[in-house]
Amino acid sequence: MADIDVKHVWGLMEKISFAMLTTWTGDKLRARPMDARVRPKQGVIYCLTDARAGKDEEIAKYPKVMLAFADAGSMKFVSLAGHAEVSNDRAKIKELWEPTAKAFWDSPDNPNIRLITITPDSAEFWDSPGTVISFAKMAFAAATGAKPELGENRKVAM
Questions:
Q1: Average predicted confidence (pLDDT) for the chain
Q2: How many CB atoms within 10 Å of residue 145?
């Protein structure tokens, strides 16, 4: 079951792809949306970031991070805890470059681009049959006093 759950977590993250990255500043949590490049075969999630954005210093000092993936339309969610590292790996930045990155930088050669590599420690997923079915089950549960069965939820060691 554990291997199936790990594969399921990676699959959900690949489908959702955008995530909220949460870091610790030393006195508060800070979250921001990231375009996650999920790589199950390598066992990591990559994000491109700008050296001027402040995440580098937070991660260097406090490398434990959270990624929250959410597809509210299909009621699928993943919360992942892991260890992050920031690098200036120009070859990997070029390899991971996608057209979406042009919203922030003209090319992968921009010297301000940095690479965040997140290695997962653990995750938790919620995978329901979808919005309409979930709402119907919640309405039925509210009317009958029963607890709704809204799909799978498990904690997973990565």
A1: 88
A2: 6
